Amino acid sequence: MKTRLLRHSIWIALTAAAPLFALDAPRKLVDYDIRVTLDPATKTLTGAQTLKWTNPAPEPVSELRFHLYWNAFRNNRSTFFKESGGQLRDDQADTEGGWGRIDLTKVQIGGADVLARGRFDSPDDGNPDDRTVWVLPLETPVGPGETVTLTMDWISKVPKVYARAGYVRDYFFIGQWFPKIGVYEPAGMRRRKTSGWNCHQYHANSEFYANFGDYHVSITVPEKFVVASAGTWTGETKQGDKKTLRYELANVHDFAWAADPRFVVSESVWDPARDLPAAEIERAARTLGRSKEDLLRGMRPVKISVYGQPDHKPQLHRYHDAQKWSLTWLGLWAFPYPYEHISIVDPPEDGIGSGGMEYQTLYTGGTSRFFNSGPLVGMKFLEVVTVHEYGHGYWYGMVASNEFEESWMDEGINTFTEWEIVDRRWKYDLEFPLGLGFSTRGVMVPSVAKKQEPDPIVQSSWGYVSGGSYGNNSYFRSGAVIEQMRRLMGEERFFRGLRAYAERWRYDHPTSEDFFDAILSQAEEPAIIRGLIDQTFYGRGFFDVRVSSASTTRAEDFVGFDDTRKAVGFDETAGKKKSRDPDDKGRRFVSAVRVIRDGEIGVPTDVLLTFENGQTLTRPLAAGNRWLRLVVESSSKLARVEVDPAHKLLLDRNPMNNLKRLEADRSPSAARKVSTYLKHGLDIVLSSLWSAF
Amino acid sequence: MNLFTRSVAEGVRLAARHYRLSVLLWITLFVSSSLALRPLSGLVRAVDGSPFGERLLAGWDGDAFVGMLAGIQEGLGPAFAAIPAGILLFALLSLVLSTGILRTLQQGLVQGSMRRAVIEGVALFPKTFGAFFRFGVGTAAWLLLVAGLPAWILYELPGKDAPPNNGFTNAAILWGVLAALAVFLVRRARFDVARALLAQNAASTGRGASRLAGRRVAGARVAAAAIVLFWLIVVAILQTVFTRLGVAMNPQTNAGTTGLVVVRQIGFLLVAFAHVAQLGSLSAFERLRRPVPTPLPRLASPG
Ligand SMILES: [Zn+2]
Questions:
Q1: From the CA of B132, how far away is ligand 1's center (Å)?
Q2: What is the pTM of this model?
Q3: Smallest CA–CA separation between A686 and chain B, in Å?
Q4: In the list A4, A392, A679, B22, which could disulfide-bond B272, CB 3.0-4.6 Å?
């Protein structure tokens, strides 16, 4: 007991110390001043930017690297197109005329033209045709801590939308749209050994990674367009039939906007004084071991703007509702949202390729008119996508992991929090009549537990064997493993670990091991969690606990000589066994149970024996043991044996073998009930045929 | 009383008098679905040895249900194979019995009506199938022409550059749904009338019956459609009420489960009754629509 208490106080000290390392604001290495004009008729963007970049490393940097993301849509030889086959998620590229591109027209440093010095590079796959990474060798290297200023002009053709950014009709979603400098990582950053550029090509499944900084953006569009933009609107000027809108956004690493004359704008305010439920504050404070004042520090009202499609009007309030609950949950359990606004773009149904995508202080949702009303209103896809994309504001946005190299870090952690946020508020995100429903977590976890994945979770986004493996590992498998950690660690320890991760890495760039360190720092038995991590994030392990056998038989009465040389249970002279007591008084039973754990992952669990008279017996199966053998003598027959009776082992490959019911078990049959309802379901289908013909 | 109310009242009267025919239909339903689900029920037995049993016994638990399905996933394919077979068997039985039921209703014999419906239904089946074929093909053609084509034109009219879900697409959906319903109601009434004609040997082929039925329905399409719609609504109410009741029962014991079966099957028996009553209604409708009205001594005389 004492040692435990001692260890506990060390943890408290560590937790208290953790925020000391955390940042209250990011280290700003970039400053973008961008002026851009959209010509909807020709689908072109004409842009000019002044970029200030600061060398964070202790050594001079002699070349700069830039992302020219839209060149992914330049032709069918780009790495993006080759990997995606012109199809991403559920949307197809328009290969007739939907190509897009970005071309630098002028690059100057200190008034000198340097455009001609640049070249394209394909650091990931050597594809000579890819144009998504542009390298600019410098005449004068940028010294440590020095800032270089570049002026850059460019012209872009907006692609027809199928993968995140693009246009359809006069809806424009403008993301990854400007020449964006890569990340120069000094040795030690993200645990790397030597300094160097981190500037990957645009891959089908890869998302993004950049330095924090400030953005000043002026957007010129025809008068009739409604602009949805990241950042705070600071003013507007008109020139003829055009208007220029100005936005400011500090402490971010990306900036996106959208324009559509048909946007229906609705606004609301999330006010912590009004919208934070007392019970949730109480719950978070108790679980996280923090004072309420501590949790509420930094909470501020947040303006929510929804840019909706007119045909989705009846649903737009649902964006606000889901957004507010997400602000509440993440604000309390991770840290308060620091920006003053959040914009949600609801893409049109023919531009759904831009839906469900995260940017900072702006993200895209997505829905269908069929969820406006009628039998499908219980399908909460809109809520789920809202919770998910807003969640990325934390896991990728403020806790800025590298989406190229460790795609699970944004998608997996975000899937975990999405499941939790949805579960806490709605329980089922697919609601059917009669109170029936399903949750995404409930649907995905069993399939993750069953399936033998070809890849470990930790992988670059283009390093998985297939798009399916990328998706399953980055989202669901990592989400499920994190949920498994939570159930093994318990609510307090797990959520304190998650909180430690969020606070330490806010405005910083963590790696997988940084997340694990934060979680492990709170674990009571870190070795068990570390084993789970090694077998899933770095391996393809599994486990299956099962009741291998269970029996109960009448105990043999004592027969033979006792210590006083008296014959017991048999007649010595007749050489015959005595018959049993006809009353069966004092009868005893011997129950034998074998529980086995298959697979590489060592998880601790319990084995629960229930006897006919209602008595129970619980025995642990330790993480280090592969099996448990029990022989119990008792006055009652063994009725049932269950391994993992608390249902903590979410990743158990086959939970169907976790229980053995013996003859003495009198509990009612769920199978009979399930079969009855299934029959009624089929009866309804069949009897409806009478109405058909 | 108008055509609609007289037909419906007569249908109810006939179905009540021949309640055994509803029982017969209900038996085909019970047997078909029991056979179709035999392999699945065997598979579901595994749930009693799983951690999901207690959760499912407590009430609806989506996560436990999915967990159970994942646990028996490998066996689901073969087990589900029996379901289409069960549906086909049931559809065939329903079709066979429909004309047999109509003849039994028309002849007014109560004794041995179950046996009679089967024998007559089997005897009339080739002609019934002919009428069914025409019903199917005709309905499909009319659906395409009256519902599908105008809806498609409306949908395509605004062109490729129109925003989704504009006035035209909304009108297309509305038109498609309403026109499809109207086509179905009229065609279904005509099919029932055709079977009623076959049952009284008023036509020698399914095709002839279908044509003659067309003449009976023409001029009273609204009443005919209203009769079908009426029974459609009755069935929908019955299914909803009994399904809700069944879900609310949520039995936690084996005896409770048996009680659930009894209660829910009463609902299906009533749906079978509504089906017989619908056939009776359209049979009465046919009689009332005959060009030369003839008295109906058998039907009118009390038994
Ligand atoms: Zn995501």
A1: 52
A2: 0.92
A3: 7
A4: B22
* Whether the Cβ atoms of residue A637 and residue A611 lie closer than 8 Å to each other: yes
Residue of A nearest to B74 (CA): A450
The closest of B232, B242, B120, B21 to A693, measured between CA atoms, is B232
Q: Is A635 helix (H, G, I), strand (E, B) or coil?
A: coil
Give a yes or no: residue B298 inside a domain.
no
Which of A88-109 are b and which e, b meaning 16 or more Cβ less than 10 Å from the residue's Cβ? beebebbeeebbbbbebeebeb
Alpha carbon distance B294, A411 (integer Å): 77
Q: Which of chain A's residues have a Cβ under 8 Å away from the Cβ of B93?
A: none
- How far apart, in whole angstroms, are the C-alpha atoms of residue A671 and residue A655? 15
Specify the number of domains making up chain B.
Answer: 1
Write out the residues surrounding ion ligand 1, Cβ under 5 A. Answer: A 411
**What are the strands of the beta sheet with A616-621, ordered from one edge?**
A616-621, A605-611, A638-643, A659-661
Asked whether the beta carbons of residue B57 and residue A443 sit closer than 8 angstroms, the reply is no
Residues of A with Cβ-Cβ distance to B272 under 8 angstroms: 687, 690
3-state secondary structure of A124: coil
Distance in angstroms (rounded) separating the CA atoms of residues A426 and A387: 12
A545-578 pLDDT tens trace: 999 999 999 988 888 899 998 888 888 888 887 7
- Do B71 and A446 count as a contact with CB atoms less than 8 A apart? yes
Residues 6 or more apart in contact with residue A576 via CB below 8 angstroms: A570
**Residue A683 is nearest to which of B33, B163, B247, comparing CB atoms?**
B33
- Domain carrying residue B29: 3-58+73-289
The correct CATH number of A543-650+654-689 out of 3.30.1460, 3.30.980, 2.60.40, 1.20.1250 is 2.60.40
Judge whether B84 lies within some domain: yes
- The CA A625 to ligand 1 mean position distance, Å, reads 38
Query: What distance in Å separates the CA atoms of residue A641 and residue A595, rounded to the nearest whole number?
Result: 9
The answer to whether residue B41 is domain-embedded is: yes
Give the tens place of pLDDT for each residue, B171-199. Answer: 999 999 999 999 999 999 999 999 999 99
Q: DSSP strand E in A413-569: where?
A: 430-431, 437-438, 543-554, 560-561, 567-568
Residues of chain B neighbouring A435 (CB-CB closer than 8 A)? 60, 247
Residue B48 CA to residue A659 CA, distance in Å, equals: 8
Q: Report how far ligand 1's centroid is from the alpha carbon of A461 (Å).
A: 13
Instruction: Find the residue in A nearest to B269 (Cα).
Output: A687
State the best of A649, A682, A689 to mutate against chain B, taking most chain B CBs within 10 Å.
A682
Residue B278 lies in a domain: yes
What's the whole-number mean pLDDT along residues A285-296? 97
Cα of A622 vs its chain's centroid, Å: 30
C-alpha to C-alpha distance for A394 and A217, rounded to whole angstroms: 23
Size of interface A-B (CB pairs under 8 A): 184
CA A186 from centroid of its chain's CA atoms: 28
Question: Ligand 1 mean position to B163 CA, how many Å?
Answer: 27
How far does the CA of residue B50 sit from the closest CA of chain A (Å)? 4
* Residues near B256 by beta carbon (within 8 Å), at least 6 away in sequence: A668, B249
The model's pLDDT over A190-219, given as tens digits with 9 standing for 90+, comes to 999 999 999 999 999 888 999 999 999 999
Residue in A310, A439, A689 closest to B90 by CB: A689
ipTM of the complex: 0.94
- Where are the domains positioned within chain A? 22-219, 543-650+654-689
State residue B262's pLDDT score. 97
A311 with B165: Cβ contact below 8 A = yes
State in Å: Cα A394 to ligand 1 middle: 11
Pick from A615, A606, A670: nearest CA to A642: A606
In chain B, the largest separation of any two C-alpha atoms, in whole Å, equals 70
